[in-house]
Structures are given as C-alpha cells and as structure tokens.
C-alpha cells in the first residue's frame, strides 16, 4: 500500500490535513481503490469536451424566505428579522447579509419556485434529480458527476472527471458527494476528504510528512518514489492501472489543483476562509472549497460537488443564518466573478440549492421547520441567460403562485449546458437502457 502520512499541520478548513489525502487507495467510495476505478473505467466508451459543473449543496434546507424571497408584507410571524437590499438587477431584492452577491445578480438566475422535494434530510435529490425512495426502487440512480464520468470521461488523464469535496459527517446522507448508482464504482467521485477506501497494491511505502518542509519537498519525495517504482522488481509487478493511479498523484496536477495556497493570498481572502470544523452533524462552511472547485475544473475536472454549512434551523434561525449567509455570500460571489474573469463562465455551470425550504411561520424557538412545498435554487455560468427571477410564491412564501420548477428541469438544463441530450440513456446493472431523466424539458428562460 502506498500511504503518505500527514500530521496536524497545514489543514484545510474542514480539518483535514492538506496532505492526508495522498493515498492511492483513498480516492473513492465504497471500498474500491483508484486502480480499481481506472481498471473499470477502461471498459467504458467515452468522449471528450471541456464543459463542467460545480454543484453546491446547502445541507439541511436553507430558508428561502430569509435569503432570496423575502416577504416584507407578510405578518410578523412569517416575514422574519432580515431586511431586503436592492441588487444590480432592477426590481430584484435579496437578503441584507448578501451585499456582494447583490452587486452581481446580473450574473445569477434565481429560481423561487422549486417543487417536488422530499421531506428527508438527504443530498440525493440535488445530486441525481430523484428522491432517494425512487432512486432505490430504480436500482440506484447515478449522480450527475457519475453520468459525466460515464459519458465524457477525463479531460486530463491525471485529473479525475468527478470530484466530491464533502467530508465525512455525523448525518451520512448529507455527506454524500454523489453516488455512482447503477453505473458502478468506476464512476465514483474522487473524494480527498473522506478516507474510506482500502488501498491496493503490494508495496507498503510510507512517507513521513512531518519532516517535509513544503509542497516542493513533497513533490520531490514523489519523484524519488516514482524512480523507486521504476527500479523495484516487486513494484514492477503492479498492473497498468495501479501505475496510472500513482501517476495521477505523482504528476502533481491534481495535488496542485487542491492546493489553494498557490493562489494569490488576496484572492483567497476574497473567497473567505470559513470554518475549521463540521457543524454538529453537518458540513462546515469551508470557503476554500469554492476556490478548490474553480481550480479543479480549470485543471480538467468535469463535476465538483460541495456541501456547505448546516442549514437545519429548527431553532435560532436568524442568529445562525446571520453567521452562515455572509460566508456563502463571500465564497459564491467570488467564485462567479472568478469564473467570468477567467473566461470560464460559458463552460462552467454553477448550481446552489438545498433539499427543501423552510416553514413560512416561525416557530416558538425562533426557528423554521421543514417545508418541501417550495424552495429556491441559484444558477450561474454555463452560458445561461442570467439576471432574472424565475417563478414567484404567494404572499407568505408557502407555495408557488406561478412557474413551478422541478429538480429534473434543473438537471435537464445542466445536461443541456453540457451538450448532453436529457433523453440520453445509460445502462443499468442488467444492461437495460435507462434515461438520464423522466422529464426532459430544460428551463426555457435560461437557455
């Protein structure tokens, strides 16, 4: 097993050492090693393009009426404590805690009428377009990242096409970065912050990172290790896929994409740093991961998923959201601006959403409870027509007044942006063709 040991220094904001992920077997879910993924991937027919998706999951159900659909004319027990502010799109107002997004809402499309959510706490519907119940009945619906891995494959051989940045969490359904479902483990995400998989290979080589002074030293150690691989007779017996797995790591491209310290400190500060630790049983607000996502798609990743913050505010909704919303404002606004500045806004689509909305009526603990009837989503990039609001809700934010939008409509839009027809089919485990979606119509206002 190739294992590069890390200490407690140089951590990302989710508390994982920025070098701990360098383990050849630790790059997948479900116990399949990276060499196994590459072996299975070789059996898949793939084509190439440079389109990509960054999907941000707000775990727990963010409060739609406190962020992008404020109801100032509703009764006090509904309208909440926050006030709206004007944006650079005439007539569009958003929460006062998002001043930076307010200056660039011309680059964002707001959907205020997401419908069809399930009431359970799970990332599944935001990753696949299907509720967990339906997904299970149908044999395990693949996530969008797995579909891209299957249909498009890698842009760059040393960068996995699908990367999931979600760390482990106390509530496992929130930490799902995107299951491959019936497409098989070959299309699992590379997950550097989970450390679940079992390493493969016969060698047992360890590097003590405690004595390494920095990234250059680490890469020098990897170069030395590569030479050992080339000269060691025992290592010479490893198969092509184990060698390719090592090449992915030792090439440095993937490592460098994850290393946000290579960025201008001013830009990194603009993204914000966020929290160091998970929030109770949910994800941290790790702003660095938005920067990682941009670096990864620039390096060749096709889909990057992020879980950001714990939004299950049954109590103290306004106190806790006043802490989280500004972090999201900083990270998301900088990501969108960064993509535009780098000319990636036509090719990289961004979607931000949660599993459902929250109750219009504030409870007796100053919180809002689960509300699957309606929620919001944000879309940016991908060449979409932005600077608009899609749909409106009633006076209290309880239900759509017009233009309801389903999760599958958002997925159809994302597939359209990627150049993939939503009525494309992929085989299930029995070889039967399965459409990517049941409903193929994208959101006409944005395409």
From TrEMBL:
Superkingdom as given in the UniProt entry: Bacteria
Q: Which InterPro entries match?
A: Alkaline_phosphatase_core_sf, DUF1501, TAT_signal
Question: Could you tell me what this protein is called?
Answer: DUF1501 domain-containing protein
């Amino acid at each position: 097993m190739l294992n590069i040991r890390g200490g407690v220094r140089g951590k990302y904001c989710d508390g994982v050492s920025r070098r701990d992920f360098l383990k050849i077997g630790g790059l997948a879910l479900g116990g399949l090693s990276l060499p196994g993924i590459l072996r299975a991937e070789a059996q898949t027919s793939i084509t190439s393009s440079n389109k990509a998706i960054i999907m941000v999951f707000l775990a727990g159900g963010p409060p739609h009426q406190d962020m992008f659909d404020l109801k100032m004319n509703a009764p006090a027990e509904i309208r909440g404590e926050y006030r709206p502010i004007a944006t650079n799109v005439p007539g569009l107002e958003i929460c006062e805690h998002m001043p930076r997004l307010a200056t660039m809402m011309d680059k964002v499309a707001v959907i205020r009428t997401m419908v069809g959510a399930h009431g359970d706490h799970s990332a599944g519907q935001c990753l696949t377009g299907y509720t967990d119940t339906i997904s299970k009945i149908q044999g395990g619906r693949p996530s969008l990242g797995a579909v891209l891995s299957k249909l498009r494959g890698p842009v760059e051989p040393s960068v996995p096409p699908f990367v999931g940045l979600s760390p482990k969490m106390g509530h496992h359904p929130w930490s799902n970065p995107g299951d491959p479902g019936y497409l098989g483990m070959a299309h699992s995400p590379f997950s550097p912050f989970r450390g679940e998989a079992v390493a493969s290979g016969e060698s047992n080589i360890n590097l003590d990172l405690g004595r390494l002074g920095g990234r250059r030293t680490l890469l020098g150690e990897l170069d030395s290790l590569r030479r050992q691989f080339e000269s060691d007779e025992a290592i010479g017996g490893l198969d092509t896929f184990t060698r390719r797995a090592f090449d992915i790591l030792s090439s440095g491209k993937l490592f460098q994409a994850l290393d946000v310290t290579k960025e201008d400190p001013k830009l990194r500060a603009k993204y914000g740093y966020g929290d160091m630790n998970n929030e109770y049983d949910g994800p941290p607000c790790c702003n660095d991961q938005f920067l990682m996502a941009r670096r990864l798609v620039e390096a060749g990743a096709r889909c990057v998923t992020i879980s950001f913050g714990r939004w299950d505010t049954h109590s103290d909704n306004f106190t806790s959201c006043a802490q989280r919303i500004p972090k999201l404002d900083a990270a998301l606004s900088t990501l969108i601006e960064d993509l535009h500045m780098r000319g990636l806004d036509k090719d990289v689509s961004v979607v931000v959403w949660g599993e459902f909305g929250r109750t219009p009526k504030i409870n007796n603990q100053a919180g809002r409870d689960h509300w699957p009837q309606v929620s919001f989503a944000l879309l940016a990039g991908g060449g979409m027509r932005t600077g608009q609001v899609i749909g409106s809700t009633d006076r209290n934010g309880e239900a759509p007044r017009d233009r309801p939008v389903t999760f599958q409509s958002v997925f159809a839009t994302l597939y359209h942006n990627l150049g993939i027809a939503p009525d494309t089919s992929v085989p299930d485990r029995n070889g039967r063709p399965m459409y990517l979606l049941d409903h193929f119509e994208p959101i006409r206002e944005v395409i």
